[in-house]
Amino acid sequence: xxxxxxxxxxxxxxxxxxxxxxxxxxxxxxxxxxxxxxxxxxxxxxxxxxxxxxxxxxxxxxxxxxxxxxxxxxxxxxxxxxxxxxxxxxxxxxxxxxxxxxxxxxxxxxxxxxxxxxxxxxxxxxxxxxxxxxxxxxxxxxxxxxxxxxxxxxxxxxxxxxxxxxxxxxxxxxxxxxxxxxxxxxxxxxxxxxxxxxxxxxxxxxxxxxxxxxxxxxxxxxxxxxxxxxxxxxxxxxxxxxxxxxxxxxxxxxxxxxxxxxxxxxxxxxxxxxxxxxxxxxxxxxxxxxxxxxxxxxxxxxxxxxxxxxxxxxxxxxxxxxxxxxxxxxxxxxxxxxxxxxxxxxxxxxxxxxxxxxxxxxxxxxxxxxxxxxxxxxxxxxxxxxxxxxxxxxxxxxxxxxxxxxxxxxxxxxxxxxxxxxxxxxxxxxxxxxxxxxxxxxxxxxxxxxxxxxxxxxxxxxxxxxxxxxxxxxxxxxxxxxx
Length: 483
Description:
mainly alpha, 17 helices, elongated
């Protein structure tokens, strides 16, 4: 800084000296012109003054040279002494950079030590897992030599009503022993040729047992057919819809079945007898979607909102197709070629492949009776068209739940184990933006079995429990998925 100030002073001194010399030379020129004009004597006098001025100038010039030599020596001395000195501003910048780098180095050292510890832990876990793998490998080799191979369960698909989709739905997560029971039950439900138990054994009277099954002793087996079972459960659904419409909250299907049987048969023995027979028959014929839905709702694996959603959808579709039959064809029937655009209009969210799948039910005919599509036949079976609607509903609901889960992960994090109502509402806004907040609240109240007023007081819900409740509910997308 001092060196810079000296340079400034030197420059100012140089400017001052040049200005002073220029001024003096200008004054001399003016005087010379003046003397030349005024008189020759002035010229003589001017010559004497010029001589004196020249002498002074030489003196000053010599003095300036001496000053310049001194300054040059001083400059050389400064360059020699401070040639390696860094300016303060550059020093402060480098010092700040050094401090930052030092902090980063300490942080990297800490991270490195942490990673080394994790690496050591992983090495230990790998060692343990390698030992376990070796142990399992030895057990596998032993089992291959001595154990009976697992059955190829896919061989049962041709004998199951509903085909591969129904079998996968029934067999997922089941043990071999359970699969044997499912297969036997399905086959018995379709065609039973072997002996049938004449009585059921009562399951007891403890509270965990549904009211319609609370009994000790033997209960007569009425061997209900599929047609009788389908007719019974349809009547039960119809009565339940009427009953729930008169109440603020719907009744659990298991409790309603008990009330239905009490009102119909009045005697306890008949109530229990029909309860056991309905329960048993639904288990036998659960490969039929409409019976399987009743059975899952009865056992608590599905919410009755599923039936409500499907009933509303099927009733609206029946009305849509019937009105179209009045417009395009004869009353109550439609040409197959006219059905695809009607389905696409009714199901704007379905893809072309889904519509084609629904149309696959009409490969053997050119004209269909609209009402027959939604009724059961004399054997208690529903149409292939209606079976496909059931299948697509479950597939779309599963994808809907996956989308909601993905939205919850994006809102919160993948590590979060519990979600609150606000998180779930935001997830619905992302996944199904066209669904109104009123519909979302009604759906959540149904999922949590609460009043709308109680919904705001619900605390955080376990993630797995929440997803399970959504998977068993009657979720239907209102519009296209949000961005």
